[in-house]
């Protein structure tokens, strides 16, 4: 016979119940114990019997991750955070992209039924009604950067409004008066909150100055298009604040390609602090979002919900177990050369 759970417990000098809790992702195990048990499993080359575990616990040891895209540094960082947190708990992730509208989202959600113990969802096309119609009633769900949770689902978000407000305050403090904003998709919650923060800070710091908003879609290409359009204008804004770094970098490269100097002719700022933001020239002023940490915390919250349901049994689950107040993480202003010095 191969190595059993009892062998792992004996070698780790813990109870079989403790090993079982590590395998099932229960939050009652300390990080130190979990790390020790996982190290012993690796040393003994122990492989859990997924079929037996599914029969005994009704769990698959797999969580679903639904993202609006799988391309780009933001999403790779998000997946890195989720995957690292999952591996530390002996879990697998099943990742899917939601590129279309509500119909595609419903199809992807339906494909996850019976295959995952819970879902992490980030999508502008998914709201509480769609989740309720597409998923089993008791399946744990955590929403990422979404305003759709309400009282129905757990959610973890960045304080996009305050961070965007702080960026405009910084740009105004640098002496910039005509501050333009390159927004994201109209239906995207993050884009809406960042636009709201831009407008609030503009009214507060520069009363009487008209807003200047350009439509983007979070892609580098949309930033490039706006950068080229601004370069052709006789009267340009003093600064361009883009709702994410990919658009900011696209705009900055296009402006430089047209012979303009950053920040002397026009300042540029972004949002997210993706790794490449510090390597463009000049380095990009941005808002640092703890992307990997956001994914890891969402995974942690999801495993707590899964453990609560597994411990009580589906019949004993109450509505409150899958309804929590939204958790909001702060973002940090990162000042680099692209925004210009304080005048």
From TrEMBL:
Record carries keyword Protein biosynthesis: no
HTH lacI-type domain residues: 3-57
Pfam families in the record: LacI, Peripla_BP_3
Keywords: DNA-binding, Repressor, Transcription, Transcription regulation
Entry-linked InterPro entries: HTH_LacI, LacI/GalR-like_sensor, Lambda_DNA-bd_dom_sf, Peripla_BP_I
Any one Gene Ontology molecular-function term assigned to this protein's record: DNA-binding transcription factor activity
Protein name: Transcriptional regulator, LacI family
Provenance organism: Pseudoduganella lurida
Lineage: Bacteria, Pseudomonadati, Pseudomonadota, Betaproteobacteria, Burkholderiales
